[in-house]
Design goal:
The chain has about 260 residues and is mainly α. About 80% of the residues lie in helices and about 0% in strands. The protein is elongated, with a radius of gyration of 27 Å.
């Protein structure tokens, strides 16, 4: 006969409640997942330049198209865009921020300005950036097909997981693959809009559309990447694992040295 008395009820309730260790494990897992989401968000902003990265990739092109729309002077417009790019790099330097994105922006603007002045075609100011975008889109797609998604290769070291997501964390592997496909498709769509304007459109049309397509696709790609990673398992901190193994090895060596000789 089944025990329905108070003792049986209490035993069943005690069995249904998670023990302290289970509750602690759940809280620890939630903390790790939340930390992983925060780390992914920070890593994304750092990897792609953050707010200043968007400014540096948008403002010089905006200055060029505004200047060229006003006076149709290719040289003045190109020099103005380059000057703005240099000012933004100096602002980063004054703020003690990383200059890799700023130097990339200065180099891109300088190359576009040189190319446009050499050809005499104002639309060529945008061509190097458009070719870079198309090449980057192809790199994202190829890396996803090859099962080495570029987003994972970029963010893995930043998140201290290196390549552990490929062999030990299939959930993150799928998330990185989805994110890489998202970047590739978004950049391919952007290229599909800009290249017809370069071939058959007016320089001002190309310039304004390129400015308009600067920030929104970037924000969409970053948002999708964050969503994919937020739903994935937390990263495996292989750096912490290596450090723990080194400490364990040192402790074993110290224990062996402390043993009396036989």
């Amino acid at each position: 006969m089944t025990d329905t008395g108070p003792t049986g009820k209490h035993a069943a309730a005690a069995g249904a409640r998670p023990g302290p260790k289970t509750q602690e494990d759940r809280e620890d897992r939630e903390d790790r997942e939340e930390g992983g989401r925060d780390a992914a968000r920070t890593a994304l902003l750092e990897a792609f330049g953050g707010f200043w990265g968007m400014v540096e990739t948008t403002v010089p092109g905006l200055v060029f198209v505004v200047s060229y729309t006003v006076d149709r002077d290719l040289k003045v417009s190109a020099v103005a865009a380059l000057a703005v790019s240099l000012v933004l790099a100096l602002v980063r330097l004054a703020r003690r921020q990383t200059l890799k994105h700023a130097f990339g922006g200065v180099f891109g603007v300088a190359f576009g300005a040189f190319f446009a002045m050499m050809s005499g075609n104002a639309k060529d100011f945008y061509l190097p950036g458009m070719l870079y975008t198309l090449g980057l889109a192809a790199a994202y797609v190829v890396s996803a097909i090859a099962r080495y998604p570029l987003i994972g290769l970029m963010l893995g070291p930043v998140l201290r997981e290196n390549l552990s997501w490929r062999t030990r964390n299939p959930g993150r592997f799928r998330a990185y693959t989805k994110a890489t496909w998202a970047w590739g498709i978004i950049l391919l769509v952007k290229s599909a809009i800009l290249f017809p304007l370069y071939l058959w459109g007016d320089v001002t049309e190309l310039g304004w559309v390129k400015v308009a397509l600067g920030v929104p696709p970037f924000l969409l790609a970053v948002y999708l990447t964050w969503i994919f990673l937020a739903k994935a398992p937390p990263p495996i901190d292989v750096i912490a694992e290596m450090e723990a193994e080194e400490r364990a090895e040192e402790e074993r060596a110290a224990a062996a040295a402390a043993e009396p000789p036989r």
